[in-house]
Amino acid sequence: MSIGLKLIDARISFSNSNILDHINLTIPAGEATVIIGPAASGKSILFKYILDLLDGQEPKLTFLNMLNEKVEPQPGQVGVMFQENALFDSMTARENISFQIVNTLSYPKLKALKVANKLLSEMGLSVANGDKYPSELSGGMQKRVALARALSSKPKLLMLDEPTAGLDPVLTVDICSLIKAKTQSEDITLLAITSDIQVALTYFDNLVLLEDGRVVWTGKVSAINDHEDRPINRFLRGE
């Protein structure tokens, strides 16, 4: 069963400057939610906050299943793909993919490599690509490897940090289509941040707009055009 989450009064300040200001937000289980906003709006900080990657900051959040029951994610149930892919330079693509399930789920190495081979194929990469190091792969291939690693532990919640950054339009469609197909077929909740407005409007169910560390609009993508005076419409018009 997929996992969502609820943020409760999330606040972060650095040097007396509010980065996140009383964020209350629900990410529904089983749906695809994207967070957008102008530069320095707090998107990346919020992403790290949810993942408990900020020193001295204990996230105020609750994980919920589709019945809105509180749950505690087990190891591997939250998959993450970072903007710069965060692949290990000294490991092959196959070893990068198998790393998490060996170290988090204690899979035997042989079993983990079989899982990696299966994911390589699902990501459209060949066995030969699996033997290559990140420096030998194109940007698009590195994204596929990073996505495969995030999916390797069969997560219930998949978090993506700028999943299409640096990709051309064709590769953007390919990666987004892969993400959508995998999350829908395996009932995975999707939470992403992106600066690509077209990606946000095309591939997600729900949209959250951050400005100055505050949520100024949240709702269904399909409802964005219902009221022209809403902050989301002004943002999309570049106002």
Label this structure with key terms.
single chain; 239 residues; alpha/beta; Rossmann fold; 2 domains; six-stranded mixed β-sheet; four-stranded antiparallel β-sheet; 8 helices; 10 strands; 25% strand; globular
Break the fold down into its secondary structure elements and pairings.
Layout: E1 4-14, E2 17-27, E3 32-36, H1 43-50, E4 61-64, E5 70-71, E6 78-81, H2 93-103, H3 109-122, H4 127-130, H5 139-151, E7 157-161, H6 169-185, E8 189-193, H7 197-203, E9 206-211, E10 214-220, H8 231-236
Parallel strand pairs: 3-8, 3-9, 6-7, 7-8
Antiparallel strand pairs: 1-2, 1-4, 4-5, 9-10
Description:
The chain is α/β, with parallel strands linked by helices and 239 residues long. The chain has 2 domains: 122 residues, 3-Layer(aba) Sandwich (Rossmann fold), CATH 3.40.50; 82 residues, P-loop containing nucleotide triphosphate hydrolases (Rossmann fold). Helices cover 33% and strands 25% of the residues. The protein contains 8 helices and 10 strands. The protein has a 6-stranded mixed sheet, with helices on both faces. A 4-stranded antiparallel sheet has the order 2-1-4-5, covered by helices on one side. A hairpin with a 2-residue loop joins strand 9 and strand 10. Helix 2 crosses helix 3, helix 2 runs parallel beside helix 5 and helix 3 crosses helix 5.
